[in-house]
Specification:
The complex is a heterodimer of chains A (about 725) and B (about 160). Chain A is an alpha/beta fold and about 725 residues long. Chain A folds into 5 domains: about 270 residues, ATPase, nucleotide binding domain (Nucleotidyltransferase, domain 5, 2-Layer Sandwich), CATH 3.30.420.40; about 90 residues, Alpha-Beta Complex (Actin, Chain A, domain 4), CATH 3.90.640.10; about 100 residues; about 35 residues; about 80 residues. Helices cover about 50% and strands about 10% of the residues of chain A. The radius of gyration of chain A is 46 Å and the shape is elongated. Chain B has about 160 residues and is mainly α. The longest helix of chain B is centred in the middle third of the chain and has 26 residues. The radius of gyration of chain B is 30 Å and the shape is flat. Chain B starts with a helix and ends in an 8-residue tail after the last helix. Classes of the chains: A alpha/beta (about 725), B mainly alpha (about 160).
Amino acid sequence: MDVVTRMPSPAPPALPPPPSSYDEHRSQRTPLVIDNGSTNLRYGFATSDSPRSGLNVIAKYKERRTNKPLLLFGDGVDVEGGAKIQARTPWEGDVLLNFDALENALDYAFIQLSIDADTVDHPMIMTERLCSPMHSRSLTSELLFEQYSVPSVAYCVDSVMSFYQNHGPGADGLVLSFNTASTSVIPILSGKGILSHAKRIPWGASQSADYLLKLIQLKYTSFPTRVTPAQSQWMLHNFCAFAPDYVALLRSLSSPQALREADRIVQFPYALQVQEEKTPEELERIAERRREQGRKLQEMAAKVRTEKLLQKETDLQHLLNLREGKVDDTKREWMYKLQTEGFDDDAALDETIKKLESDLKKARKKEAAADGGEDTEEPTFPLVDTPDADLDEDGVKEKKKQKLMKAGFEARARARREKEREREERDKEELKEEEERQGDLGGWVRKMRSEQESLMTRIRERGRRKAALSDRKSAAAQARMKNIASLAADDRMPKKKRKGGGEDTFGANDADWAIYRKINTAAPSSDEEEDMSQLAMIEQKLLLHDPSFTTHHTHASLASKRSELVSTLRPTYDESNAEGLCRIHLNTERWRVCETWFSPAMAGVDSAGLGEVIQNVLARFSDSEKGRLVKNVFLAGGPSQLPGLVPRLQATLRPILPPEMAINIGSAADVDADPWRGMARFAQTDEFESVGVSRAEYEEYGGERVHKWWGGNWN
Amino acid sequence: MPPKGFQRKKAAASDGASTPQLPSLAEQLSYLEAPRPFKNPNYAKKTSRRSKNLKAVLTQEREREKAERERRRLERIEGGMDVDGEEEEIPTYTSIEAPPSLLPPRHYCDITGLEAPYTDPATKLRYHDKSIYELIKGLSASAVKEYLAARGVNSIVK
């Protein structure tokens, strides 16, 4: 199953639709409806059919080129890297906290609505978080009343308004609100949210996307491109689903075949490396050029060498002439001559001549060797056998020297002979093996294979021992410590025995010393290298002669072989396959990520999951109320559209409820806009006026006080 | 969407040499200069209140809830029988938080996500089978730590 999906490249943000006309609403006091969600901001007048909407994010920054300060909202933030860095949202996770960003976002909304009056003179209805923290509400109220001078504000809970939009006033139901950074369970009886029994799970779509991103990063530790949170969000919405029975699904997935079926491949953009193809002629030309260069260099070196040699020869000739001329000169003249040539005395001159002579000799020898192969001439050592008594002082010295040289010469000859013998032996062995192979190929293969097997076992054994030694408590490590202790102990032999002539026999057997190698963990084992080289040799022979032995059977490929399960979970691609290297395989993750809503503990959040929380919430109601609630389970919020949620909830709820209790699970008709539509619908009823906080009330009681009503918070 | 691409191309082209005074897309999108007559010019926002961080807000909320509960307890003692049951419990942001799970935790493989009947005693990683165990053996200490962190287990630094 190769289902490859390309990661879409981000589209440039579109220009927003032109601002709508304000004429219709000017001094009409049309209610203004704002759904201040943590992902999207939806706004508009209550009389419109649908809201205007944009990502609830702003960026204030200076453009690099023109150095002009800019302020962007929503999708526009993506237009430039500089803006993205400066992006701010009013929400911090689940809490409305950043009021500068909120002010900028509301400014944008009011500009788009073309409000040109001195104040925002419209009664307002705005969403807030379920049981919103007082701080958030009081600052929002302050902003609305003092900055925009609105006449009144009513706060409501978005999912309750979505329920109102879908089921009308006075309905019963259990609202499951899937928000960006949290998930809430809100029971509703006769249209009224029973917030005292509501619960919130600190897990939402953003946490799930983060979890998916973390899993991907763990699975692909060296992915060539950076996977962004936006991309992981895209993967969450396109590939992930709820499993009706997660454990059963996992069991079915443990077979590689099923895993392969479940695999989805995400192809990230990649750049093909253009490799320069060189024709054989070109390669030949390059090689030729290189050879030519080498030859030239060699020639130059040879020329320099001969020049030097010539120079030395003339020098030597000159100095010899000088020395010969000594007899003709007076002592004084001679000294003068020596000094002008740069010598202190006769000895220095002699030494230089000697040195030159030996240099020349060496150089000539080298030349001869280069010309005519090895120097086969055997040196003679005439003085070695002469007794010392027959020699003078210099002779003795010379004899010593010759002795040394002779020893060296003989050693070299011995080594050469040894090598030759070895080679012969090897040849003989090879020949024997060859005969054996030709006579009985099957037997030979069996023998070789068993040898390879035993070597591999030995290597594996060694690896296991090494691993065991790194653990202080393992049997191998303990045995080693025991060995060390007994070696260090003085009385390896009982005292009695020692007195009675019992000797310490350690070392009598050569194998005794092996203990020191055994306890030394730091030194690299020479056996290992030996085994490896032998193994390589055997494998090479097998590869050459055994037709059934392929590269897959070699130790290297066996050791690096991954189990089928691992290679299906995360198939590997060849280093040169740029396309494959930029692929992400999603399989178990597709359900693992959604499962976190039902058990956040999987991702390290110590909270009950959705199923448990629903059970807790229902437990506080009487059976008849319970029946009214579960008859209408209502799903709100974007993540509720992930596939498989309804069957999963059915599977979760059925066992915890009496069998005669009917369970109906339905979703909002339009999860994104329904809260706003419900608010707009409600804002046009007569009841709306009674639930809002007026300006006078704000000034009297402060920004925290609200009226308690069916769609709003109680605190 | 062709109009998008068209817009962008135009904006990019305008950055060139011929007509540099044409605004870029970001400049077109910016609403910094848009008039805001609806704002109160005399409103001075209190920056100190606005700059509260999340932790402070949640702590404040928790303390509020505690104080509220205490107040109502005292009221109940003073008022005796006549008030009790009348006022419903007022939920707050901290009080509606879901409790920790009481169900026995299921074990899933840290590497594959499959069921994990085993736990490696050395790394404490949960694993599915022998082949995953071999993979775990080859993991570096930092990789092990990251796998554990994904499950919310923060290993103790030795």
